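Q: You know discrete backbone vocabularies at least as well as I do. I have my own habits and do not want them to colour yours. No explanation is needed for now; the record alone will do.
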Amino acid sequence: MDLAFFVEMVPQLVDGFWTTLSLWLLSLLAGLAGAVIVATMRMSPSLLLSAPARTFLTVIRGTPLLIQVYILYYGFGNLFAQMPSIRYSAFWPVLREGYWYAWAALTISFAAYGGEILRGGIAGVPKGEIEAARSLGLRSWMTWLLIVLPRAFRISLPALGGQNIILLKSTVLASTITVMDLLGMANYIRMQTFKVYEPLLAVTFVFVVLTWISARVVAWLERRYSYGAR
């Protein structure tokens, strides 16, 4: 184990760290928004909304995330490259970057799993709270936004926290489509220096720290929600 080599590779790994961090947080924020939409559609009594949501959940949860990343990057990416209206448009600088295809795949995946978790949380909201909101004269959309969704998030928080950690670890798949994230940078260093353990151990340490921080944040939110409920 070469400690001096650890110090030398830190600047390179820092660039990969920021890529991984931004990919994780942006996917989490967009995925949570998508999860709300999926859960809302899934709970809708209308087949026009619930049927597409069920199909989406079946497809996304039934296929490996790596395949979804490949379909977006190699499938849609190549398709867009062959379309002059896109290739020579202002959108091409974004659509040619693997980063955004990885972000889209991670966002879609979290929206599917998180949406099903939220659906369970919505189903667990006590009916008495909904009836109380209606008795106060709140409209349906106000009851949904002010009572049902916050309560569902509170119920679903532990499961969403676990899914968030899975999302964090799934960001390494971005390295398979040329994104120089933390693992991608570690692999580059490994190929250039033929040192295997040092880069991988550094990546392992960073992910352990990020996972610990994420778990602490979720635990803090659980305590705060519990205090608010009391």
